[in-house]
Design brief:
single chain, 132 residues, mainly alpha, 3-stranded antiparallel sheet
């Protein structure tokens, strides 16, 4: 299982989920305003993400480019579950309607996310149903 990306790593993944592959410079241009980083910080984060298995590096026409290795829907499902539990203290399933206005997810991805979130909720309910 891949580690859950940090908030800044998620910004990079979102850029790559929308368009891929991208060079380090292209990624930096897409996230620079959001993260207010130097180019060297972007490069260092890309290297760290590659080490964590979140990114794949390719060479296209002699240029190093990056693709997301972390799958979008499972990554977002893990973030939703974490937010629901840690911040909102929701113990049951997270409603996929939470993502209804997302520009990041297609209709098919929303359906996949809904199924993932329902599975996670069912698994937690089954684990917590034992007699104490």
């Amino acid at each position: 299982m891949k580690p859950q990306p940090s908030a800044s790593e998620l910004a990079i993944l979102k850029a790559l989920w929308q368009q891929s592959p991208l060079s380090a410079r292209e990624i930096h241009q897409q996230i620079a305003e959001q993260l207010d980083w130097s180019y060297s910080s972007t490069r260092k984060t890309l290297d760290r993400m590659q080490d964590k298995g979140l990114l794949q590096v390719l060479e296209v026409h002699g240029l190093k480019v990056f693709e997301a290795k972390a799958d979008k829907v499972p990554t977002l499902a893990a973030y939703a579950r974490d937010f629901a539990e840690r911040v909102l203290e929701i113990k049951g399933p997270v409603p996929a309607s939470f993502f209804a206005g997302s520009e990041l997810l297609s209709q098919a991805e929303l359906m996949e996310l809904e199924a993932l979130l329902a599975q996670e909720g069912e698994g937690e309910t089954q684990q917590g149903d034992g007699d104490d």
